Amino acid sequence: MIELTGLTTRPAQVWGGVRLVPLVRETPIEDLRLDVRLYDEDFGVVAVDPRTAYYSYIPHGYVATWDHAPAAAYGTQLLDPADRTRAPDRMALRFHRRMARRVDKNRLRFLPLHLALEGYLALHFGGPEIAWEEWSQRAIRHGLSPRVEEAYTGALVRGLDDALRVFEIHAGQCGLLVYVADALASAFVVPHPADYRALHATLLLDLYGELIYHYAMLSMPVPDFRARVADANVRSLADLRAEAARQHEEWAAFHDGAMAAGLLEADYTYERVYDLGPYRLSRFLPPFERRRDNHIGEVITGESGQVAYLKTFRLSENQVRRGRLLTVLAANDWSLPGTATALGVTEPELGRRIENAGFGHLLRQDVRDHYRARRRAG
Amino acid sequence: METMADLIAADDVLLFVNAAITSTGQREFHSGAEEQSLSLGFLHRYLLVNYRDLYAATLALDINDHNAALIVRNLLVTAAEVDVERRRAEGRLIARRLELLPPPRVYALFRELRRARVNNRRTRAIMRDWLAARPDPAFDAVKYRGAVKDAVRHAHLRPDREEDGELGPFLFAFRRPAAYWTPILETWRRAHYEQAALYDLPYTVAEGFAAKHRIPRATFLERIAPRLTRLERLRLQESARERGAGAVRADLTTMPLTRLASYVLGLSMDERARRRGELTGALRASARRTAGDQAGRWGRVVAVLDDSFSAYGSGTKRRRPLAVALACHFLLEALAADYTPLWVSGRDDALLVHPHGATPLGERILDGLDRGPERLVIVSDGWDNAPPGLAGEVLRVWRTRLDPGHTCGIVHLNPVYDAAGFDVRRLAPTVPTAGIRDAEDLVALAELARFAEGRTGLPALRAHLDRRVAAFLGEQT
Q: Fewest CB atoms less than 10 Å from the CB: which of B170, B215, B226, B414?
């Protein structure tokens, strides 16, 4: 469960196939802010008083110049007021000449694709823990490495650039849910409106799964949820005002209960990464149920569990299938017969699924041939 | 008895008038330049083919210069398709409209006609008459040299038939004469060699010579100041101030209202707060001048003004919708006996408005109706998004259930042409929407808007257009 307490859903803004739902925080979180060095460098404004003590965070994949070289933050980072000067864990980036020049102007924020999916990729990265005879030598020695997933930057998602450009940021807005063809593509929440304004454009540099890319490519414009006032209830201006207020409540309830249910109500597995003061940074993995939204992401929560920072990535159907396969395999200690029973299929069928998921090389060649022969026999 | 075709015709014409007032074929907040000009081009074509007489008659309305030039061009390109009488009527409208257009735009139109290879007799006659009516041909020849040359060549004119015959050599063989008798031509010749001479030339021409002579920008601005036109002065004031050329100072009180509002919005917040008295005074003075004898006669007025993020416009029309809203604010203040402005963002300091935030238009309209005004004026691009469609619902319910007797006159003025809808965006069918380009036209538009309310017959519209055409053509005598 993800609790969006303190955040109110405001009416969506639609542009083509993209629906953007703003989240507004009544009381902004003041003691957790975007790292001031990013503010100084990239936005040219110091929006926070440097003397006050506050915790700071650096979003995952954020490129900035630390120690004179451009580098991307590796995983979202939480920093103590005391280590304000420490450079975050990062991954140096080597740019072509042209790109480096753009970084120098502090205009480019670049998310290294292979980094962003780390949480998902690390899933059972080690491979089989018990060396059952079916697994190949390679699987046992090297695990699932190299493990690669593909994703698209927001700039490639059709219509997203225009939708973000014409989006009107609400007063006090601290978050945004991006829907493409009414499929929830990503959720983004920050602690403070100033941070949101600074990071709004970076949504275009974020990663979106293959599913979102195709939906955007193929979808028709989605309809607005337009306000409807029932004439019969209105006898005075006050009634009309009450009706107008009801529109807001109805929309918020509908959105949180229906549209975002897949994100908010799923059963996540959290992995704690770092605790700092009242804040906890964790990564989470979805239950990998098929035919549902499955989101992976990073979240910073406060003491009472309210979300201060959130960033999610929606897995495509194939990724969910792979994730589920790996989860079930791991749960059954990588035993093929055990897993087949757990999934309710025959062993050769499981072999086919492993091959289709792109993990065929993990099985010994003779085992694969054997399975294939048995499938053919019937 | 009115036929369906008549109603459709009336709708089409109103649609076109709205487009011709607002659209300039430039990028807007929601649509690109290509979309805008494609959409506008279609409307022009559609009207030209189906209602040519009404199309020509719109020249008499307060449409913007871009569209006026387009209409003139389209009429001249297809002049052969109509009979002599119709052509003559069109010719009169065109001639009158060209008198009102700024000269650069007319010269651009002539060049456009040349590119389109339109050289019929009517076109040549129109060019000849317009050029003959210019007050100072020599000045034009210096300021718009290339364009004048093209026009003269295209219309087969001999510019030097009377006078002392210097324009011909000046345009076509300027190296030949050792000196000119006409003072401005002689100044222009000397400016090639003598720095002091260029300060007697028009600013745009002098700028080129200043670059040639490598005169520092500050010195140049300081000395060219007396030659600047009113709008050049307004435009250059800030950059001149930065460079320390204090001589460039515009008299803000004489500026047109919407231009002035644009200028104010171009200043930083600190600057606006610092010069609050001066700027407010200038805006008020300009608004009072625009209001004229209507001042104070509009009764109790509430305005809902859009300062949401989309009022930023685009890089090419920077803050235009917001400038129109700001100008309307000051104009309505002058027109009304009792005036309440309601900015959509909830801010109440008009001088410090900036485009930011969402558009909860419906709630603002409710606030406005709460105050029980005689007139409610809404200035907005019609993108109501928090929640979408609430403004339309509020207005619909207000008209049908709460105020069926029209005790409160509501009008929606929209400064932005919606390319996808071929019209300005409307809020509700029960409330008239009119396109607006300059706040100065507000009074006339509020009147025209009643045609947009419900369905107006073609005869009424035709009568209105005939009256406007007669007035338009009658002004010249």
A: B226
pLDDT per residue as tens digits for the range B289-336: 999 888 888 899 999 999 999 999 999 999 999 999 999 999 999 999
Tell whether B382 is within 8 A of chain A (Cβ): no
A370 touches chain B (CB under 8 A): no
Q: Is A252 on the interface with B (CB under 8 A)?
A: no
Q: Is the dihedral of CA A51, A54, A55, A61 positive or negative?
A: negative
CB contact under 8 A, A13 and B385: yes
Which residues, in sequence order, are CB contacts of A87 under 8 Å at separation 6+? A66, A67, A71
Single pTM value for the model: 0.88
**Contact assessment for residue B36 and residue B417, using Cβ atoms and an 8 Å cutoff:** yes
**In whole angstroms, how far apart are CA A100 and each of A58, A64, A206?**
21, 11, 20
Q: Distance (Å, rounded) from C-alpha B79 to C-alpha A129? A: 87
* The token pair that represents B176 in the structure block: 């030949």
Contact B393 A237 (CB under 8 A): no
**Interstrand relation of A173-180 and B300-305 (parallel, antiparallel or unpaired):** unpaired
The backbone region for A61, taken as left when phi is positive above 0, alpha when psi lies in -120 to 50, beta otherwise, is left
Q: Cα-flanking dihedrals φ and ψ of residue A316, to 5°?
A: -85, 170
**Beta-bridge partner residues of A276:** A279
Distance CA A150, CA A135 (A): 26
CA atoms within 13 A on the CB side of B189: 20
Strand partners, A187: A177
Chosen for mutation from A13, A200, A240, A248 (greatest number of chain B CBs closer than 10 Å) is A240
Cα B454 to its chain centre, rounded Å, is 27
Residues of B in contact with A168 (CB under 8 A): 308-310, 357-359, 385
Tens of pLDDT along A154-175?
888 899 999 999 999 999 999 9
Phi, psi of B124 (to 5 degrees): -65, -40
CB B434 within 8 A of CB B449: yes
H-helix or E-strand spanning residue B304: strand B300-305
Amino acid identity of A3?
E
* Cβ count near B152 (within 10 Å): 23
- Conformation bin of residue B117: beta by default, left when phi > 0, alpha when psi is -120 to 50: left
The answer to whether B318 touches B378, Cβ cutoff 8 Å, is: no
- Return the pLDDT at A300: 86
Task: Please tell me if residue B27 touches chain A, with a CB cutoff of 8 Å.
Answer: no
DSSP state letter for B400? I
pLDDT digits (tens, 9 = 90+) for B199-216: 999 999 999 999 999 999
> Which one, of B334, B319, B239, B249, lies nearest residue B285 by Cα?
B334
Distance between A166 CA and the closest CA of chain B, angstroms? 7
ipTM of predicted complex: 0.86
**Full 3-state SS string of chain A:** CCCCCCEEECCCEEECCEEEEEEEECCCCCCEEECHHHHHHHHCCCCCCCCCCCEEEECCCCEEEECCEEEEECCCEEECCCCCCCCCCEEECCCCHHHHHHHHCCCCCCCCHHHHCHHHHCCCCCCCCCCCCCECHHHHHHCCCCCCCCCEEHHHCCCHHHHHHHCCCCCCEEEEEEEECCEEEEEEECCCHHHHHHHHHHHHHCEECHHHHHHHHHCCCCCCCCCCCCHHHCCCHHHHHHHHHHHHHHHHHHHHHHHCHHHHCCCCEEEEEEEECCEEEEEEECCCCCCCCCEEEEEEECCCCCEEEEEEEECCHHHHHHHHHHHHHHHCCCCHHHHHHHHCCCHHHHHHHHHHHHHHHHECHHHHHHHHHHHHHC
HSE (CB half, 13 Å, CA atoms) of A320? 18
Which positions in chain A touch B306 (Cβ < 8 Å)?
none
CB A264 within 8 A of CB A1: yes
